[in-house]
Fold these 2 entries.
Entry 1:
Amino acid sequence: MPTATYDLIASNVLSTSAASVTFSALPSTYRDLVIVITASLTAGTGQNQIRLNSDTAGNYSSVSMEATGTAQQSGAGNPNTWWYVNFNNGDMDAEPTTTIIHIMDYAQTNKHKVGLSRGNSVGSGTSVGANVHRWASTSAVDTILIQASGTYAANSSFYVYGIAG
Amino acid sequence: MPFGLGFFATAGAGAASGDFELIETALISTDTASVTFSNINTYTNYKHLQIRLTGRTNRADFQDRIAIRFNGITTTTYTSHVLQGNGTNVSSGVQTGFQFIYTTGSNGFNLFAASESANRFGAGIIDILDFSNANKTKTIRMLSGAAGGTQISQVMLSSGFETTAAAITSITLLPQFGSWVNGSRMSLYGVR
């Protein structure tokens, strides 16, 4: 019997600018999480950075491929203290940009957590890109910190969906 | 309290259903050469399919790659394109005349294998659009990769198809070289 899924778990639409957004006490009842971000920075360019379960150690890997409009690049951060979306050129600027991050098997304790993401922006010095990430922990993910290398502007929105599996 | 994205009720049933539904999940506990989702032609409620997977194989190496077959076809009638990044360079590739959809470039990999450190898996999300339409070939798209490995750290966008226009009735997921190992997972979803 098919199961309807892709459920909204949590959301945050900023009423004022903020340095970061945290989703905590996430349920473990889904197979994958999908984070949908439509956000802009108060100034400059930057990128979305993801931290799981408040782990500040160098347990994060990311690899990207990006296009800036004039060049294509691939970058990698391993190890690092965050997942980086569009590692080299970032996915954010003063115009609203769209980023979708999938965290696969987020509650499974027999594997590291893999992220697949797409960062989409059109500003000068930013990029459109695809990324894969790994968090070197077998812990179930229950907290997600999303931080920009800059400040999120008001009306930036963050949604977390759960997908059964 | 979570609520579904889909709001349409099943006609006549009186019960809510979604527009994105989990159909089936394969959880691998012992070495398994391939996973096949079959009888897909019975899923008449859906227009599109999505497969979400995390995988690792028993190949005696550090890496492997995801291969995809439709309808049990093993002739050399599959073609694919890939755009991939390895942390240093972005490259493009085409693979023609294979017995499966080749989801990476010739030097690309999206799965970790037996020589890699424990608990490291690759992942992929595959979209198969208009899968039951018998008037056209079906070109899939895929985002996949494996990050922070001993030898590889790669991300790729892939497309691929098989030359037959027949409706897709089965989908087989297999590592190109090894077998799926414990912890691998493949889930099939239908989109109305």
Entry 2:
Amino acid sequence: MIKSALFVLLQVFCLTASFGQNPPWKANGAAISVRPDLDVQWLSTNAFPREVWFYEIQPNAFSSDIISNVIEECSFTEKDKIKDDASGTTFRNAEGSRTLSISFSSGEINYETPRTHYGPTNLAIDVPQTNQLPALATNLLQKLHIRSSDISTYAGQSSIRYLEPALTMFYAGDNTITNIPYRSIYFRRFVDGMPIIGRSSVIDVGEHGKVEKIAITWPVLKRIKPWATVTQSDLVNYLRKGDAIRGPVPSDVGDIDWPSIKRLTIKMAIPSYQSDGKHLFPFLRLDAIVDTGSGSVPVGMDCPIIDEASTK
Amino acid sequence: MKPYNSNLHLILGGDTVTWTSPKKWYNFARYMNYGRHDFYSPYTIRNAYYQGNTDAFMDAPLPSGTTITLAVAGDSACLDDSLQTNTPPSGSWQYDSLLIFSN
């Protein structure tokens, strides 16, 4: 009993110590300089949760139901299994062209098929239209046991999107022939209504509605410790103290000389999580407008949502 | 007007506004020369361009509603050119685009 309590205490200590020193959001962009006089306008009106959690990322063994559903969806059978151990299971077809990897250790499901080489006389046939994707998505997410609450904001807004990411135009004489090789179902995992930033989960659907790609990261998450969120006044202070990073700018803008900017307007603040592979850390993602004095530049920013100094 | 002549292999560009990132050029060069993983498996020029940008912007804070679509235009025979091998242009032209970021 005492050993267990000590282990938990040690775990919390290690987590909080590493968090305060190097939160992962700081690697997402360029540090901003200290500007005690910075004019910050806070226009974001969305309410924050009062507390956010540190999570530990744990393996996901996935249920036998999920595994059999995915195997069937990807047209594999038991004879295609080439690896099966405690870390996961892998299937590959006889030609070696299609692979399904289910990693228990990282909680990932990845299915890859070779992209077909299309041409003006060999176009993709019967790729589902965008308006057909919602029904397919509902079916596929059910098979993966992903609930709508897992991919929705705390306001209930779904993160699922239906996109046409790839397009090819062939020029044959004066004719232009367009080919859509596949369409995609994108969704993002939400925890306590907060998005996990990073690569979205995606399912590509190609000819005749066949699934051509699955890329899902869905580890088990264990709550470790709650932390109170800071006030709007604290957030403005973070921005003035340079305790934030800013993201890229549009290529036609050039760069931002932060020490000389005139005003920073925060349009939206989104409580979010980011993974370092072992833990989920809470932070705040900002939609901002920078008044450079010669124009307005849209920019994304990340900053603390808790008093990270107190976690050191 | 198409910027095409019989010698052109590929033109890499954007279908939307693109965003600054030192990582995207680092990734692009690395993936073309070596590959994406810890073993030697160089990408084609087109795939290095797409994947290098995808990885560069994966965690980047970009304003909500941002979409980045890249485009690679060129001779149909050259779409899979790599730094290591390339194919002479065949005379047919195509335009390929891929969404690499959307939030």
